[in-house]
Amino acid sequence: MTVRFRLALTVFLTGLATALAVIVTVALAFQRFEHESIWQRGDAFLARVTMLHDDLLDQHQRQPEAFASFLRNLLLYEPNSQLYLLAADGTVLASTGQAQLPPGFKVALAPVQQAARAAAAGDRQQAAYVMGDDPEHMNADAVVAARVLQRAVIRPNRADEPAAGYLYLVCSKPGLPAGRLQLLGASLVSPALVPVVAVILLISLLAAWIIVTVTRPLRVLSDEVATAARAGFTTSATVPAPPQGSADDEFGRLRGGFHALLATLRMQWDELRRLDTFRRESVSNLSHDLRSPLTATVACLETLQTRWQTQVAGGQSKGQGEGQGDPEADQRLLQVALRNTRNAAAMVRSLGDLALLDEPAFKLHLTRLDVGEVLDDITLRFAPRATQQGVGLQFVQRGDGPPVAEVDIELFERAVANLLDNALKFTPAGKAIELSAERHEQGVRVAVADQGAGIPAADLPHLFDRLYQSRDSVAPATSEEGRGLGLAIVKRIAELHRGHVAVRSEPGLGTTVTLELPAV
Q: What pLDDT is stored for residue 481 in this prediction?
């Protein structure tokens, strides 16, 4: 069962219940109006009779049989009513009905007294109409009217004198005659039912329009969810985005939120796929980069082991194999093995450092200081290596004020050292490297500019990716930071400091790497 069908069924049942309630209300109102009209007519009739004949009890006492005919003559113009003369206790003394009542038959006295009091007071608030016993049809109530009767005496009657009897009028018999039924039908069909039906139809049409308006965006959203469920998170099967200027209601916001969520999920899915591809490529590159130094180390150690075993077996003599017992050759093999082992260890250490920096719980130990002093110390530390390579190295501080920033000293020194190490690797002898710091409105800018061979434009977007190396001329795993990890560590350190790193390079003109730190 769809939402639209359920809403339509609810509206239909509500309209049907409303229509039935209106019809019942109109019928009850018509019945009440009829009862009030009948009671008023009957009460007025009794008022005329008691005003013209104030000795009814005496007439009945004198001529009981003739009195019954007298009562019937009074009802010539009220053919649907019956008139009764009651004693003070409710006993029927005379009647105009055709039914033979048993001797001593009584009617309920409370409705008689209520009707008599309402008639005497003339107050419609006290009783709009009174329902009492109909002696000929005791299984149903009827509208009744009553008047108090007193005996004819010479002295005037007091207001508090008890009633001697009652003139009791049953105004209508149970059930409505055919003419009344036709009148009721005409009242319902012509003046009341048609407007009611028209209002119900109008409300139904309005409800149908509301249902269609409400359920259309739900159906569209349901179709889009189904399409997204079938297509998954691949970007090839796109779900049409909501048009510009769409309704800014709850459904519009729900649809917009769904598209935003879908876009986020697809972006995260693409990122997961990219990370999975990166993981597989990283494992492949890492295994290759570690294999080279480890293979070289194993070869050197096996060569040394073979030489030493041969020396032990045959003795150390001048006539043995070439290179055997040569201390300088052994020393070179040890140096190669140590260098490759250190490079492999440095790569593993860098991977561990990156994993540590990626931890969400990792926190910086920030210190506010003049980064120019730190950069000057780093320049002094790298000066001997630069002199040995024949490369000029200097620190320059630009700007008006000191470059003050909040940094983690250890990580900041690590980032600048990585940049200088990279610059020294790719700057030939006779060229220069400049380390500079500059204060500006947004923060502090630290730059390392070399005069090396530069980086191809195709490699620049991937320069800070992990396990990526742009200079193909460098042998794998020959740097102290391992292959493609030094700049990745620099980028991560910059991000932890709420800064960023950028590179600018032209082949043959050199490379400038800029580290931006936020202002304090």
A: 42
The pTM score is: 0.46
Distance CA 301, CA 288 (A): 20
Tell me which residue has tokens 């000066």: 383
pLDDT of residue 325: 58
Q: Is residue 231 part of a domain?
A: no
Per-residue burial over 324-345, b if 16 or more Cβ lie within 10 Å, else e, is beeeeebeebeebbebbbebbe
**Max intra-chain CA distance, the chain:** 178
Query: How many Å apart are CA 357 and CA 351, to the nearest integer?
Result: 10
218 and 211 Cβ atoms separated by less than 8 Å? no
- Judge whether 304 and 333 are in contact, CB under 8 Å: yes
CA distance 119 to 389: 130
Say if residue 299 is in the same domain as residue 368.
no
Mean pLDDT by 10 residues, the chain (520 residues): 71 78 82 84 86 85 85 78 87 84 87 84 67 79 85 60 84 57 56 70 80 77 80 63 62 79 84 78 66 79 81 58 63 81 76 75 88 93 94 90 90 92 91 93 92 86 70 40 69 90 89 90
Are both 376 and 514 inside the same structural domain? yes
Give me the CATH number covering residue 166. 3.30.450.20
Q: DSSP string of 151-175?
A: ---SSPPPTTSPPSEEEEEE---SS
351 and 371 in one domain?
Answer: no
The number of folded domains in the chain is: 3
- Report helix, strand or coil for 42: helix
**Residue 88 pLDDT:** 87
DSSP 8-state symbol, 249? S
What is the helix (H) or strand (E) element at residue 504, kind and residue range? strand 500-506
Closest alpha carbon to 517 in 406, 362, 401: 406
Q: Residue 517 belongs to what H/E stretch?
A: strand 510-518
> CB–CB of 303/333 below 8 Å?
yes
Question: How far from each other are the two terminal CA atoms of the chain, in whole angstroms?
Answer: 63
Beta strands in 343-496 (DSSP E): 366-370, 392-398, 404-408, 432-440, 443-450
Report the candidate in 437, 431, 446 with the shortest Cα–Cα distance to residue 392.
Answer: 431
Of 464, 472, 425, 480, the C-alpha closest to 293 is 480
Q: Quick one: 509 and 381 in the same domain?
A: yes
**pLDDT computed for residue 501 by the predictor:** 93
| Domain-embedded: residue 401 | yes
**Distance (Å, rounded) from C-alpha 484 to C-alpha 152?**
132
Domain that holds residue 399: 363-518
Task: Kindly list the strands in the beta sheet with 141-149, ordered across the sheet, starting from the edge strand earlier in the chain.
Answer: 92-95, 82-87, 165-170, 141-149, 130-133
Cβ count within 10 A of residue 88? 14
Residues 445 and 414 occupy one common structural domain: yes
